[in-house]
Design a protein that fits this description.
The complex is a heterodimer of chains A (about 350) and B (about 290). By secondary structure, chain A is mainly alpha-helical. Chain A contains 14 helices and two strands; from the N terminus they run αααααββααααααααα. The chains are: A mainly alpha (about 350), B mainly alpha (about 290). At the A-B interface, helix 2, helix 7, helix 8, helix 9 and helix 12 of A face helix 3, helix 4, helix 8 and helix 12 of B.
């Protein structure tokens, strides 16, 4: 009985080969992502080569300190870096190296790019991942609350507050938090992800310290992200309020909470999941700024140093790795979507 | 609908009257920025890179907003920073709408495999993480204001393209367009006389948020060190202030860090307000057109 009356998105389920159609939807999605990944790697390879300039130009310039008089020496240098080979074979070896996890050599830090990324990526994943989770929870709850109380004070206050937080760039939000909660009231640390030179007596102490350092950057990133989801959920909830099944559910005498979350909120889940993938990209973008303010040892601060030093191999590695992270997050969301939404297979 | 479908930020519903009033406020703020953009060089008391005073002077006297660590006048930098922001707003906004318009109209009007290819391309550009790519491109190209605008336009056109495509799709089958076709009007004539005029409102509606995004991106990239270091911009002011960590623990943030942030936030809010009012004015007609 209850399963019959539970509001599911109204869909005319396809008769027959819905499984086949669903498989086609999976394949189409996988194909798009494979092509995108290829495009990302190719762009990272081609962009420095398409733009004017040449890594060997300095060797040809008589005014530069590294001018090479002997043309043979110049050719040897080009051969050493593989720059004498045709573009296609450079491209092939770029692919082979990437697939082996070789991202090249960081010019400014004289370290393999892969090593640098390996040390930095976990911190960024911790920051962006927890910000995504937290902003999802906040955005969802606030959205359902505002939609349910449409037009009333709670609704207006949430809309004004969260819309305003969207106009404020992450670095401004982060600076304000830092000045308030690390300087004026020095509750939280100003910078870093751990106590410098700390030796921990137990795992719990370490986790505690890491979380303690995470609070402010996480808050800054979460506030910026929550606003996007909030409006989406709120508007979906409002759209469901007038539906027949809501009236019926109310007539059945269901509790307010059940109505609010089980019936109205549940319908907002689909667009909410869709937004999750896009949010992953926003979170990575936002982490660039937040990490900068709090000197957080993640990918963002690494990228900033690479920009200042014009360390192109490091920037390329940064771009490729974060693209892979965002692409996988999006792909996971899409596959989840195909599973959750009965209509996707029905095209 | 797949998950890559653009999720348009749902409009904040409010009464139209409030939206129009907000638009007026936004317009007034915006015109102040335009004045700064036009006459900034004459108003600013110092050159932005000039070492005009002692280090970290507090506001007052010769320096209305004090000086930064190098002794440069902050008020002058603030005034002249409007130039970079508004230039990118204008160019990136126009570029985004132009690229999105070409793709959207081509895809919507001609349909077929061209449409399919263009829409897959749109999906692809939508998923690529933009800021890391912008950072790489900005570092590679040097990130001058004009180049940056072009790059922004080349990365952020898909939203506009999708909206315009769907409008073109619906226009194509309207009776007046089909009648024109029946009278022997060529493709170009149909597009120019019957499609483009109906799209103009949509172009405006897409231009405004794209301009706002340009402002945020330019400032963000300057904050991360992309761009001409001698060009005064609010993003690079914030960058310099934050790079001197002492700005947080002294009073200096009040006159060094807060003004450029306030200038940016106000500009973005003003653009958002104008955009909201424009949508309110435009959407009733659009709604009538699309349904």
């Amino acid at each position: 009985m209850t399963t019959l009356l539970r509001p599911t998105p109204t869909a005319t389920a396809p008769a027959g080969s819905s499984r086949g159609r669903r498989r086609a939807a999976y394949l189409r999605t996988l194909g798009l992502y494979a092509v995108t990944l290829w495009a990302v790697v190719t762009a990272s390879f081609l962009l420095p080569r398409l733009l004017p300039g040449d890594p060997l130009r300095q060797l040809d310039d008589p005014d530069s300190g590294t001018f090479v008089y002997d043309a043979q020496v110049r050719d040897r240098v080009a051969a050493y870096y593989g720059l004498d080979k045709p573009l296609v074979s450079q491209y092939a070896s770029y692919f082979v190296d990437l697939s082996r996890g070789d991202f090249g050599w960081s010019i400014s830090q004289s370290t393999p790019v892969a090593t640098l990324i390996k040390n930095r990526l976990p911190w960024t994943l911790l920051l962006t991942g927890s910000a995504l989770l937290l902003s999802s929870a906040i955005g969802f709850l606030a959205g359902v609350t505002a939609g349910w109380n449409r037009g009333r004070f709670a609704d207006r206050a949430l809309i004004t507050g969260l819309s305003a937080s969207r106009a404020i760039p992450e670095y401004a939000l982060a600076s304000a938090l830092l000045i308030m909660f690390a300087v004026t009231w020095p509750i939280f640390p100003q910078a870093g992800a751990q106590r410098p030179f700390a030796t921990y007596s137990s795992v719990f102490e370490k986790v505690g310290d890491v979380l303690f350092h995470l609070v402010l950057p996480l808050t800054a990133l979460t506030l910026g992200l929550a606003a996007n989801k909030f409006l989406l959920v709120r508007n979906t909830v409002i759209a469901t309020l007038g539906e027949d099944y809501m009236v019926l559910a109310r007539a059945k005498g269901l509790s307010r909470r059940l109505l609010k979350y089980r019936h109205a909120g549940r319908n907002a889940v689909l667009p909410f999941i869709t937004a999750l993938g896009i949010q992953a990209g926003f979170a990575i973008g936002g982490s660039l700024f937040v990490e900068q303010i709090f000197a957080y040892p993640g990918m963002g601060t690494l990228a900033e140093r690479a920009v200042v030093a014009r360390d192109y191999p490091l920037l390329q590695g940064y771009f490729v790795i974060l693209s892979v992270v965002v692409l996988f997050a999006n792909l996971a969301v899409e596959l989840l979507y195909v599973r959750v939404d009965p209509r996707v297979g029905a095209r | 609908m797949t998950a890559t479908t653009v999720v348009r930020p749902p409009q904040v519903p409010g009464s139209p009257r409030w939206a129009i009033a907000g638009g007026a406020v936004g317009g007034v703020i915006l015109s102040v920025y335009v004045l700064l953009f036009l006459f900034g060089r004459r108003i600013a008391p110092f050159r932005p890179t000039e070492l005009a005073g002692r280090s970290l002077e507090s506001p007052g006297g010769d320096h209305l907003l004090g000086t930064n660590i190098l002794g440069q006048d902050i008020a002058s930098q603030l005034i002249l920073g409007a130039r970079a922001s508004l230039t990118v707003a204008l160019l990136a906004g126009l570029g985004t709408v132009a690229v999105g318009g070409v793709v959207g109209i081509l895809a919507g009007w001609f349909g077929g495999w061209g449409d399919a290819v263009l829409m897959r391309l749109t999906d692809l550009v939508l998923i690529v993480p933009k800021l890391p790519l912008l950072l790489l491109l900005g570092a590679l190209t040097g990130g001058s204001v004009v180049v940056l605008s072009v790059v922004i336009a080349l990365l952020f056109w898909p939203t506009a393209a999708r909206i315009l495509r769907s409008q073109v799709l619906s226009l194509r089958s309207r009776t007046h367009v089909r009648a024109a076709k029946g009278f022997g009007a060529g493709t170009w004539h149909q597009l120019r006389r019957h499609v483009l005029p109906d799209l103009s409102l949509l172009f405006v509606a897409e231009f405004i948020p794209a301009a706002g995004r340009g402002v945020g991106l330019q400032a963000g990239l300057a904050f991360l060190g992309v761009g001409d270091p001698t060009l005064p911009s609010w993003g690079s002011m914030i960058r310099d202030a934050v790079a001197f960590r002492g700005v947080f623990i002294t009073e200096a943030w009040k006159w060094w860090l807060a003004p450029p942030i306030t200038a940016l936030v106000l500009l973005i809010i003003a653009i958002t307000l104008v955009g909201g009012a424009a949508e309110q004015r435009l959407s009733p007609r659009l709604a009538r057109h699309t349904r």
